[in-house]
Specification:
The complex is a heterodimer of chains A (511) and B (282). Chain A is of the alpha+beta class and 511 residues long. Chain A has eleven helices and 25 strands. In chain A, the strands form five sheets. In chain A, strands 5, 6, 8, 15, 17, 19, 21, 22 and 24 form a nine-stranded mixed β-sheet that branches. Chain A has a seven-stranded mixed β-sheet with strand order 11-12-14-7-4-1-13. The longest helix of chain A is centred in the last third of the chain and has 31 residues. Chain A starts with a strand and ends with a helix. In chain B, helix 4 crosses helix 5, helix 4 crosses helix 6 and helix 11 crosses helix 12. In chain B, the strands form two sheets. Chain B has a two-stranded antiparallel ribbon. A two-stranded antiparallel ribbon of chain B has the order 2-3. Chain B has two domains: 139 residues, no CATH class; 133 residues, no CATH class. The chains are: A alpha+beta (511), B mainly alpha (282).
């Protein structure tokens, strides 16, 4: 039986929007319908060491699942682990775009203030059957099986190849059908000395682990075999290459693919070096009704921002110092608990804690949102770690109007201000999402009607009252002493030179 | 009477324009300022007015101090302004102190590190490397320019005009040409990527800015034309190796710093007439 390899890339379930993305490809039966969503990746970079955790976004049957990921080195058994899908959920909840809600005080009544947070639910998502390996045939094809591992429910092969044609034939002979479009990218990867990390699910082991083996004898329900329940795989390698090979997964896809990258580093933000990394528009006051449509709001906001950047830029959605020893807030507002020791460990951040179980190193977290396609992103994504520790969140602000009677003078001025603020909120909404805001006239008129003397509209200034709070930062310059030291030594040199030149000119005059 | 006056005024205007365009530094200042405005307005860079003021201020002030000490020409402030604009365009840091020091060190190095009356390092380059290496809170974002074709074309065209004016066009042509050839052979011929992969590599604002406005600084590159071509070839080779073998995507900026001994050597082996800004203006 032949299996068709469907190419997809890092795929992210994105607010009900089905988009796809991954740096490997998935295998499914020829007739299996694949639902490409979006991918999620955790990248941990420490010097030249990279740990990548790949979420499962394959929506077919477990037995049809296979994944091929180009990797820079031949991975050892200890370099491959199985992680938990819950980790992605946690990071997503923590770092997703958020709404923050403020309540206006009634200027005519006693002041009460509360706030409430909301977050966007990002759907979360992330296996091969190897036949017996014929060494002789492999040699003919130029394919070497560098290693084979059984990692919990997964069967893993590390392949190296000399020619893409050989690799393609090998995969075909071993039961996999590669789409024509994938061949053209296999060759450059082989020439770039990359190895191929090939994964499939060991069905017996999976049944054994899940304890459904005997249930299956009595109930034949295919939905029990959904690959969606598969756990994410994590790999670690040492290489100066800090990249995500998106091209392989692109080959079979039409249109844009989405990928969320959760990156951890010691120094600061992670950014793309060969595409522009830019901030998603943030900290804007938006109308109250956005609360009920936040998912669509953010999808449209992202669409617009992405189009404005010629569909090329990579968007920063979150950046924060999440070091365990950091005393300041780790989000503002928090929509999910910040990652803790256990999460760092699961993600592969092994410097956060020392052998005495004490917080030891700095951990900086970055969330990047990539939407790519063959046309706009011909090159694989290359990253680097920067010392940029500035905090950032995708945050949108709702303001609840004051309640009660607003007929006092202060209250009337408040209404006039609110009318102006609400008009601004609608303008912001239009700028961010291109939504047609003329249908929301009532939103502005609501408080206009409460104004008895309409001429007070001219008495209030624009923007008063709509405060946009900044992001808290705890940055303390560790090299301040060194900087002052260098500054003063160069100044001393300057003075020395000045006096020497003076002395010389005096000497010359005397002579 | 009136017509004579207007002729006189027009002549004065033409003379003013001439004097502006006669000094390549003026054109360079205009271009670099335009790039900075483009970055801040269209590319929403993080650089704030505060940061720009600190960099430009510290650079000009340092230059003034050194003019006071050494008695250099006041017109050298133009070069310092170019240095400060270069720093604003390339160097990033969250710390104002680092940015101020980058400008201060860039100019100071120009006066302190000299061989035969010629400063060793490109000041902006020195400021960038020094602050990245010493302070650990500065960095370069090679992707910050995006790859907007129109902008890149403008950058190239403007670069060519300046280089033609100072007579250093061959350095950039050899550098970009040989780097392109090496990348072509590796990416297209050997690895088999499509042509758009290669184009994307070269449609980098940072690379073009290096090629047109930094490696061509006439004061810190070899004096003779032949030496400059050999120098550009070495620069391209080293950049190619660093970016492909060690994945350093800001390679040219590091190479240009460490190539200094070769510059001195080339100046000795293939001597040429030292560049002077004023000469080019006259």
């Amino acid at each position: 039986m032949k299996k068709k390899i469907i190419l997809s890339t890092f795929v992210v379930g994105f607010i009900g929007l089905n988009v796809l993305a991954f740096c490997g490809f998935y295998v499914a039966k020829a007739d299996t319908k694949l639902f490409n969503k979006s991918s999620q990746i955790i990248l941990v970079r420490d010097g030249n060491k990279t740990t990548v955790t790949m979420s499962n976004d394959f929506d077919g049957d477990v037995k049809d699942f296979a994944m091929v990921v180009p990797v820079p080195t031949i991975l050892q058994r200890e370099d491959i682990r199985v992680s938990e899908a819950a980790l992605f959920n946690k990071l997503d909840d923590y770092s997703g775009p958020r709404l923050v809600e403020y309540y206006d005080q009634n200027p005519c009544e006693i002041r009460v203030q509360e706030y409430m947070d909301m977050s966007v639910d990002m759907a979360m998502p992330t296996s091969i059957n190897m036949e017996s390996v014929k060494v002789k045939r492999n040699k003919e094809l130029g394919v070497t099986v560098e290693a084979t591992y059984d990692v919990e429910e997964y069967d893993i092969l590390i392949l190296s190849a000399k020619k893409s044609a050989g690799l393609k034939t090998w995969l075909t002979e071993n039961g996999y059908k590669i789409p024509h479009s994938a061949e053209e990218v296999l060759e450059p990867y082989i020439k770039d000395n990359l190895k191929f990390f090939v994964v499939k699910v060991d069905l017996e082991k999976l049944d054994e682990m899940s304890g459904v083996g005997n249930v299956r004898k009595y109930i034949d329900d295919p939905s029990m075999n959904s690959a969606r329940t598969l756990r994410p795989l994590q790999i670690t390698y040492e290489s100066p290459k800090f990249m995500l090979p998106i091209r392989l997964g692109m080959a079979n896809s039409n249109g844009d693919q989405d990928m969320i990258v959760y990156a951890f580093s010691k120094e600061g933000r992670v950014e793309c070096t060969n595409y522009r990394t830019t901030k998603i528009p943030t900290n804007k006051n938006v109308p109250l009704f956005v609360r009920d449509k936040f998912g669509k709001f953010y999808v449209d906001l992202f669409d617009k921002a992405h189009s404005r950047e010629n569909k090329e830029a990579i968007f920063l959605e979150y950046a924060w110092n999440v070091s365990p020893q950091m005393s300041g807030v780790k989000c503002d507002p928090c929509v999910g608990p910040p990652p803790i020791f256990a999460d760092f460990q699961k993600a592969g951040v092994n410097w956060a804690i020392n052998s005495n179980n004490q917080a030891s190193g700095q951990v900086f977290f970055t969330r990047l949102h990539v939407r790519y396609s063959r046309e706009t992103h011909p090159q694989d994504l290359l990253f680097h770690v920067t010392p940029n520790k500035e905090h950032f969140q995708a945050r949108y602000i709702l303001t609840n109007p004051a309640q009660g009677d607003l007929s006092c003078d202060e209250g009337q001025l408040y209404c006039a201000q609110l009318v102006k603020n609400r008009a601004n909120e609608l303008d912001n909404l239009h700028d961010l999402t291109s939504w047609n805001t003329s249908q929301y006239k009532g939103y502005v008129q609501e408080y206009y009607k409460k104004i008895k003397d309409k001429s007070i509209m001219n008495k209030v200034e624009q923007d008063r009252g709509q405060v946009v709070p900044g992001f808290d930062s705890d940055y303390i310059d560790p090299n301040k002493g060194l900087k002052i030291g260098i500054l003063s030594s160069v100044v001393v040199l300057m003075l020395l030179m000045f006096f020497r030149l003076r002395l010389n000119s005096i000497k010359r005059k005397v002579a | 009477m009136q017509s004579t006056e207007s002729i006189y005024q027009t002549r004065e205007k033409t003379n003013l324009l001439k004097s502006i365009f006669n000094d390549a530094r003026h054109i360079q200042i205009i271009y670099l300022s335009l790039f900075l405005i483009y970055g801040v307005s269209s590319l929403s860079w993080d650089i704030t007015v505060e940061k720009i003021v600190v960099v430009v201020g510290s650079t000009l002030l340092t230059q003034l101090l050194w003019i006071g000490i050494t008695g250099a020409k006041l017109s050298s402030l133009k070069s310092a302004l170019i240095t400060s604009l270069g720093l604003c365009l390339i160097l990033q840091s969250g710390s104002l102190l680092t940015l101020g020091l980058a400008g201060f060190l860039a100019i100071s190095a120009k006066f302190l590190l000299r061989v035969k009356g010629k400063h060793l390092f490109n000041p902006a380059n020195f400021g960038i490397i020094a602050s990245i290496v010493l302070f650990q809170d500065a960095w370069i974002s090679p992707g910050q320019w995006g790859s907007d074709t129109l902008f890149l074309l403008c950058l190239t065209l403007m670069g060519c005009i300046v280089l033609h004016k100072i007579g250093r066009l061959e350095t950039t042509v050899v550098f970009l040409g040989s780097l392109f050839l090496m990348e072509y052979l590796r990416t297209i011929v050997y690895q088999g990527w499509e042509m758009d992969v290669l184009w994307h590599k070269f449609s980098s604002g940072t690379l073009l800015l290096f090629a047109f406005f930094m490696i061509t600084d006439p004061m810190t590159i070899p004096n003779s034309k032949k030496a400059r071509m050999i120098w550009a070839l070495i620069l391209a080779g080293a950049t190619f190796l660093l970016s492909t073998r060690m994945q350093i995507y800001t390679a040219p900026i590091w190479v240009i710093f460490f190539i200094t001994p070769i510059t001195v050597l080339l100046d000795k082996v293939l001597p040429g007439v030292k560049f002077e800004w004023n000469k080019s203006t006259n």
